[in-house]
Amino acid sequence: MTALFALATAVLWGLADFGGGLLTRRLPALTVVVVSQVAAVLVLGSVVLATDAWHEAGPQLWFAVAAGLVGPAAMLSFYKALALGPMGVVSPLGSVGVVVPVGVGLLLGERPGPGQFAGIAVAVAGIVLAGGPELRGAPVQRQAVVLTLVAAFGFGAVMALISQASATVTGLFLALLVQRVTNVAVGGAALWARTRRGIPALPEGAGPRILWGLLPALAFVGLADVAANGTYSIAAQNGPVTVAAVLSSLYPVITALAAFAVLKERLRGVQAAGAGLALAGTVLLAAG
Any alpha helices (H) in the chain, and if so which ranges? Predict the structure, then answer.
């Protein structure tokens, strides 16, 4: 079950990242973050009301609040990096934040078997190699790398926090709602502050019509992202956090494949080798 839900997380995050990166090429990154998260809040709010998940409220929700505070900064940095591109490089590098939940799992006493340790090492090495070729180059490329690393460790912190925010399925709905409401509050405050400083929330010359036209895509990004958080939490609760975190962090493969199919981005040899290592590590982890 852990492997299944973790791999589902990778697919959902990969598609959400691809969509978010594309949208950030047409809208400011902060607008993409806030609007997509509002869509998630509306859906999650309905689910919480329908399941009476309010009864699961407790001190553990502070983990969800913390995840909600970290999440917007990580997403903003990542979407900006994806807009700078190329996605096939930025996304793999973004997954190095897996060291955060893996480290937490080890500190909490998890001890994967030899095969799983080998899988973790192979998968992480593959992920890093997949993002390596563009570490040197023009200033835009260096900016993308810095933004991606900031996002990576933010995502890692969110993964570690959200796995501690609930112990039941209904509790997970409530924790995800609290996280997303915090996301919207933090991101909305930042967006309001930017507009007060004269920075437009929409591209210059474009009215609300562009936002309405992109609303389905924005909703998809928000819902895919929140669904990924949910499947990750289930994976982490039903198996070792170390295994769930590494398998979930294979989402760059999905983003890279989507970029190849839609944007015709081509992977370099070392990136393709890294993707192969990441998949090999997945097999070792799932078999362990």
Answer: 2-23, 29-51, 61-84, 87-94, 99-107, 114-130, 139-162, 169-196, 208-237, 241-248, 251-258, 269-287
**Residue 103 C-alpha from the chain's centroid:** 18
Report yes or no: 47 and 172 within 8 Å, Cβ to Cβ. Answer: no
Instruction: Report the candidate in 131, 66, 68 with the shortest Cα–Cα distance to residue 97.
Output: 131
Find out whether 52 and 170 touch, Cβ atoms under 8 Å.
yes
State the Cα–Cα distance between residues 128 and 114, nearest whole angstrom. Answer: 21
- What is the dihedral angle through the alpha carbons of 196, 197, 200, 205, rounded to the nearest 10 degrees? 110
CB 228 within 8 A of CB 101: no
> pLDDT tens digit string along 21-56?
889 888 888 889 899 989 999 999 999 999 888 888
Sequence-ordered alpha helix ranges (H) in 199-262: 208-237, 241-248, 251-258
pTM of the full structure: 0.76
